[in-house]
Amino acid sequence: MGLEGQLVTATWGLVAATSLLFLAAAIPAVGEFVRWVTRKKALGATIIPTLHAGRAHLLEIRSMMLESTFSDKDAIELLFAMSVNARRPLGQLEDSEGLSLDQILEFYVLNSQLGVLVSRLSLIIDTEEAASSPEENYRQSLVSVQAALISLERLDRLLGSTKRKYGGRTFTDEYTRRYDVDRDEAEKQLIDLRRRLKPSQ
Predict the structure, then answer these.
(1) Residues 131 and 55 in one domain
(2) Are residues 151 and 96 in the same domain?
(3) CB atoms within 10 A of CB 97
(4) Using CA atoms, how far apart are residues 145 and 59, in angstroms rounded to an integer?
(5) d(CA 87, CA 58)
């Protein structure tokens, strides 16, 4: 084999060695990508149900606030307790590992709104500490609830993969749809069971 043949063999040897090095580097990268996808799915499985529960609590708080007034002390104390309970799990989500910068920012916005809600309601309960009137604190509390719901909608969009999974619906929409479908189906099944158990006349 001449010099030219040795050069060709050496070149192909380098190509093969480079290919093997590339594959050796790619295998851990693929493994890391799979772990990243798994972490993202686990993150969504943790966050989305908590967001759904938080939204349900905030919708209930908003509904109660729209039907009540700042002078109803029992309602204010109940709203305060509900707000604290809604804030606690939602507040813990901002420290979740694997969130994007936009998601972290939105969690800060959400938790700020919830913080204002809790503090304004506490100022209605303890009026000695309040610089604003109870009526203004109530109004600001209601604004904070609505702003928190807006923030939750943005978080839903930031966690948009759930819409692909549920045919364009958010987790909350899918939950509500399944809940209603199951209740309707349960009604039908109970009617059938009652017919079968009813004695023939």
Answers:
(1) yes
(2) yes
(3) 8
(4) 8
(5) 9
pLDDT tens for the chain, 201 residues: list them: 677 777 778 788 888 888 877 777 777 766 666 665 566 665 666 788 888 889 999 999 999 999 988 888 899 999 999 999 999 988 888 877 778 888 888 888 999 999 999 999 999 988 777 688 889 999 999 999 999 999 988 888 787 655 566 677 766 677 778 878 888 898 888 888 888 888 765
Indicate whether this model's pTM tops 0.70.
Answer: no
Inside any domain, residue 171: yes
178 lies in the same domain as 149: no
CA atoms of 165 and 31, how far apart (whole Å): 24
User: Which residue segment(s) compose the domain that 186 sits in?
Assistant: 160-194
* 30 burial via Cβ count (<10 Å: 0-12, 13-18, 19+): exposed
